[in-house]
Design a protein that fits this description.
The protein is an alpha+beta fold and about 850 residues long. The chain contains 19 helices and 36 strands. α5 links the parallel β6 and β7. Bound molecules: uridine-5'-diphosphate-xylopyranose. The site of uridine-5'-diphosphate-xylopyranose has 19 residues, from β6.
Length: about 850
């Protein structure tokens, strides 16, 4: 019954675990970071206690507002005093009284009989004694874990009342160097947890009798992909189903666009109370529970609530889903992690306290989960029954109140809350281990700590489905899976078209503009954000550019306010941006849309041996590590942007050597080297990115980036840092110009000893560049606009423009010798018909949207 591992082995494993644990964290959170002390001067309140947890101190340091610092501090004090979390909760799931056999375990302290395994809740069984050992090791005890027959059990921190010490307790040999924690072992009877995981009923396909089922689709949305959300609603809409829509409080664009639905459809409702639902945040659960309360108050007549995001899409027909759910009413669908509970707890950070404030989840330290209940979790995509929803949202018993405290301070709370409530409540026998979803996990890509600016944890995300992932969806044909995630048409729309056909969309090929995709980047009514200054400075320059082109044909227009900027893809290729703006033509106001595209800037040295292998060498911002693309497709950068270089090599680069050491050089518009970084390219990182090491504001103008092998130039690119015409939404002032356009050359390291011919200008041209650059800093008003225009002319091509048809003009508009096209009849304009991305018409017969 004991483990034959040597102490050294166990301790090595323990260290390894610690190490890998720590590895997972963003660098600024590593436990081994030198300890920091909380200075009272940085707080404008008197701390309620002395904080002991280093993590809490770090969180208080990093929190932006005093209110948030105070919240973290106060809660940490309560936790320190053990006044915060419940120590024990009761599992009221009816127990099965069948004895399971004998339980052997090590214990630390004979009187208290505390089990060494440190496992919370009831019992897990696993066939692997080694993983049982892991549980004990992770709990901090070198010798623990138990075995019974071929199975290994780990138990509660307290043995149940019916546990009794076996006669041979303490027979177990203590390890060579007995520690305080080594006691002996005991046996006890254990009982089944009472949970039965049900297999769902499979509908009888020979039976055509329509069983009715009414579903609430609880859409929890973020981003700007309104056309994709419309498409999702079109796919799932039926008169007797409902949509309850929560939009992240910060996403006013999406909220505005969707709010119109409420007035047209009695079965679509927008959540009135909105939350800033940050990734992995406690607010996601608060939002779900608040929405559920609201749903219950609506007195809708329903059988299931299913939550979906903007990146979910059905992979079976609505009829299939209805059939399946109609024979499974009363059940609750949640997917469990399928591994050892203790591992899940660790991996998920359930044994840590997180506090959400300042739209961040701050990790403040370890915590103990309550005894007496089973902790369970997995996916947060769920389908719940009305009775269960009414219980979790409206009742308040000991279990729910206790779990509420815990899950308000839990990372990714919706991934465990509903599972845990289900397993420990009277609803335990309605648990079905299926979330109805297939998820496109590619952990190598999706687990890159990409949310560390939002949560003190390394979170993972599934990848977007692309055309090549089609088999994965097709393989779910015979399984009870009805949705897939994630889909993003801006990444790949072809797969969505394919899925629609697969689930029975007819006449698909007749749909207008099926292969086009438009997504808004900016809208004049948006309530956000400072980055709009760059967008506006840039886009106004583009429309001036277009006006000049039209003027060449004698068409005189006066460009006016920018209304919307849209990103445009055709057949999954980025085709440029569209700027919808007002113009005056013969003193009449019209809406015009201008289409433009960034020029290509890659320059390869054709004499080098890599030339065929360099597939990408490009600078922009908002690099998405998971999808390996720039979200800033047009490369619109301003002095406050954070440029990133991404490069991609094809494999045969490395035929000669295993690793290539290359150097990346960043040259500012004044011809000074701003940064120099070595990169190592090998077969594991053929596609990668780097961020330069200099500060903002960036000097506006044309930057160059070169890739060198020794001093031999392989490839170069340039990028534009556009000067700002606006700052804080207003015309930029002279003082702001002198700060924001002055660059930060004093933050560069000194690379003046580096000579790179044909890349770094020689002394003479350097002096000239410097002079020009210094003069540029003083440019304001019209002079500033001219500078912006000259730069934007170098980097962007205007491809066309059109006018929105209006009642004023029935005929095509002749403007000089130019005929202005109507946007609605172009193939590219955002105003052209897009049936798949617009809410369909209600078909009175079928109750669906056509
Ligand atoms: C993964 C898992 O699939 C998911 O179960 C878990 O909750 C988070 O990790 P991921 O793709 O990373 O999902 O998250 P995403 O779908 O982008 O976001 C999850 C939910 O939070 C969505 O409903 C999304 O709309 C919402 N969200 C996310 C916001 O409301 N605001 C944000 O800033 C980010």
């Amino acid at each position: 019954a004991s483990f034959s591992k040597s102490e050294a082995e166990v301790s090595a494993r323990k260290n390894m675990l610690r190490f890998s644990d720590d590895e997972d964290l963003p660098t600024n959170l590593k436990k081994n970071k030198p300890g920091s002390i909380l200075r009272v001067e940085e707080l404008d309140f008197i701390p309620a206690c002395e904080i002991k947890s280093r993590e809490a101190i770090s969180a208080i340091h990093r929190a932006k507002t005093q209110l948030c610092k105070q919240q973290i501090l106060n809660k940490t004090c309560l936790i320190q005093e053990s006044n915060f979390y419940p120590e024990k909760l009761t599992n009221v799931c009816p127990h099965n009284e069948k004895s399971y056999g004998t339980y052997l375990g090590c214990f630390v302290d004979e009187k208290k009989m505390r089990l060494l395994s440190g496992f919370y809740g009831n019992y897990v069984s696993t066939n692997s004694p080694n993983s049982c050992l892991d549980i004990c090791v992770q709990a901090g005890f070198p010798y623990a874990g138990v075995q019974y027959g071929s199975e290994c059990f780990c138990g509660d921190t307290d043995p149940p009342d019916n546990a009794k010490l076996s006669d041979d307790a303490c027979d177990m040999k203590c390890p060579a160097n007995p520690s305080e924690t080594c006691g002996g072992y005991f046996t006890m009877n254990i009982f089944e947890t009472g949970l039965t995981k049900f297999q769902p009923q499979i509908p009888d396909t020979s039976n055509d009798k329509e069983e009715s089922v009414r579903i609430i689709f609880l859409l929890t949305l973020n981003g700007r992909a309104v056309r994709q959300v419309n498409r999702l609603i079109n796919a799932l809409y039926k008169r007797n189903h409902y949509f309850y829509i929560h939009v992240d409080k910060r996403q006013d664009y999406l909220h505005r666009k969707l709010s119109v639905l409420e007035t047209h459809f009695p079965n679509i409702k927008m959540a009135k109370k909105r939350f800033s639902t940050i990734w992995g945040g406690a607010s996601l659960l608060t939002m779900l529970l608040t929405s559920m309360k609201d749903i219950l108050a609506l007195n809708w007549n329903w059988d299931f609530v299913i939550n979906l995001s903007e990146s979910d899409f059905p992979i079976k027909s609505l009829e299939n889903l209805e059939k399946f759910l109609s024979v499974n009413k009363g059940f609750n669908f949640v997917k469990s992690h399928g591994r050892e509970v203790q591992r899940f707890i660790k991996k998920q950070g359930l044994d840590k306290t997180f506090i959400e404030c300042d739209t961040h989840m701050w990790r403040v330290g370890e915590r103990k989960l309550p005894r007496g209940i089973v902790i369970d979790g997995g996916s947060d995509w769920i389908a719940l029954s009305p009775n269960f929803v009414s219980y979790v949202a409206n009742e308040k018993d000991e279990l729910l109140s206790g779990l509420e405290i815990i899950f308000q301070h839990t990372l990714l709370p919706a991934e465990s809350f509903f599972h845990t409530v289900l397993r420990n409540s009277r609803f335990c026998n309605t648990y079905v281990d299926n979330n109805l979803h297939v998820t496109n996990w590619k952990r190598k890509l999706g687990c890159k700590c990409q949310y560390k600016h939002v949560v003190d944890w390394c979170g993972c995300s599934p990848n977007d489905f692309k055309t090549e992932d089609w088999p994965r969806i097709q393989n779910t044909q015979d399984r009870q899976l009805f949705f897939a995630r994630k889909f993003e048409p801006i990444i790949n729309q072809e797969i969505i078209n394919r899925v629609e056909q697969y689930i029975g969309f007819k006449d698909h090929l007749k749909i207008q503009n099926l292969e086009s995709y438009w997504q808004s980047i900016y809208n004049v009514d948006d309530l956000t954000a400072s980055s709009d200054d760059t967008l506006l400075s840039h886009s106004e320059s583009i429309i001036r550019h277009n006006a000049k082109i039209l003027a060449e044909e004698g068409c005189i227009i006066e460009p006016d306010i920018v209304i919307e900027i849209t990103s445009y893809n055709y057949a999954d290729v980025y085709k440029g941006n569209l700027i919808l703006h007002k113009i005056y033509h013969n003193n009449v106001e019209l809406s015009m849309e201008t289409w433009y595209k960034p020029k290509k800037n890659l320059q390869l040295n054709f004499e080098n041996r890599y030339v065929d292998n360099i597939k990408q060498f490009k600078v922009s911002s908002d690099y998405d590590q998971k999808e390996m693309i720039f979200r800033n497709l047009a490369g619109i950068l301003g002095p406050l942007s954070e440029p990133t270089l991404s490069y991609k090599f094809s494999t045969n680069t490395l035929l000669e050597k295993r690793t290539e050491n290359l150097t990346i050089v960043w040259l500012d518009p004044a011809g000074i080297i701003a940064d120099l970084t070595d990169i190592h390219v090998d077969e594991n990182n053929l596609t990668n990115f780097i961020k330069p090491n200099f500060r903002t504001p960036l000097l506006p103008g044309v930057w160059k980036v070169g890739m060198f092998e020794q001093s031999y130039l392989l490839a170069s690119t340039k990028f534009l840092v556009t000067p700002l015409q606006y700052f804080g939404g207003k015309e930029i002032s002279n003082q702001e110009v002198s700060i924001l356009h002055g660059g930060s050359q004093n933050s560069y390291h000194n690379f003046s000893h580096i000579k790179l011919e044909n890349f770094v200008p020689d002394q003479e041209s350097a002096i000239l560049s410097q002079k020009i650059s210094q003069a540029n800093v003083r440019r304001t008003k019209q002079d500033l606009k001219d500078w912006i225009d000259a730069l934007s002319y170098e980097f962007y091509n205007v491809l066309g423009s059109c006018v929105k048809s209006s009642t004023n003009f029935k005929e095509k508009i002749k403007c000089g010798s130019h005929i202005l096209e109507y946007c609605e009849s172009t193939h590219w304009s955002s105003l052209t018909p897009d049936p798949k991305g617009s809410i369909g018409k209600l078909n009175k017969l079928s109750g669906r949207l056509d």
